[in-house]
Design goal:
The structure is a single chain. With 172 residues, the protein is of the alpha+beta class. The protein has two domains: 88 residues, P-loop containing nucleotide triphosphate hydrolases (Rossmann fold, 3-Layer(aba) Sandwich); 54 residues. 56% of the residues lie in helices and 13% in strands. The protein is built from six helices and four strands. The strands form two sheets. The protein has a two-stranded parallel ribbon. A two-stranded antiparallel sheet has the order 3-4. The longest helix has 35 residues.
Length: 172
């Protein structure tokens, strides 16, 4: 309550949501476990006048029940939350905008981590389609060249040519 701008009822509600029950709210911090101390730190942030939270690996040292409680409180937090996490389940549950640092550059993505991964798969699929298209075009050119050979099996080459043309059309 010392640094809180909230009423005691709101503070108790936040503590309850972070799984502090009954008389646990009266325990001295020195008697709390590491995970409980982290949750107290979060509670202090949530009841302060801060409107932006910067969190580094917020799920470290928390059990699953505490992580779920933290997710619930963060979803209802009215300010801005910027966090770094390797916990993809947590990121997907909380983040609605992803900032990616890759190859010395930064890019932003509006959406969840799962949506970002899906968009990356589409980009990779398009790149693969482009590569496959080039390979098919090269094979078609090779067959056309073979067709000009008088000793070539024209029926087999024509069948292969038609097959490659169908595959190429399916990529477009």
């Amino acid at each position: 309550m010392q640094d809180s701008i909230q009423t005691q009822a709101v503070v108790r509600t936040i503590l309850a949501r972070l799984i502090f029950k009954a008389d646990d709210v009266f325990k001295k911090v020195q008697f709390l476990s590491g995970g409980e101390r982290i949750k107290v730190s979060f509670a202090k942030l949530f009841v302060s006048d801060a409107n932006i939270l910067l969190l580094d690996e917020p799920t470290n040292y928390l059990d699953m029940q505490s992580i779920e409680a933290l997710e619930s409180v963060l979803k209802d937090y009215e300010g801005t939350v910027v966090f770094v996490s390797h916990d993809s389940t947590f990121v997907n549950a909380i983040a609605d905008r992803i900032i990616i640092f890759e190859n010395g550059s930064m890019k932003a993505f509006e959406g969840t981590l799962e949506e970002y991964k899906q968009s990356q798969q589409k980009v990779q699929a398009k790149a693969m389609d482009g590569t496959e298209k080039i390979i098919l075009e090269m094979k078609i050119s090779e067959i056309v060249a073979k067709l000009s050979n008088p000793n070539a099996d024209k029926e087999a080459l024509e069948a292969e040519y038609q097959s490659l043309i169908l595959k190429l059309r399916s990529l477009k």
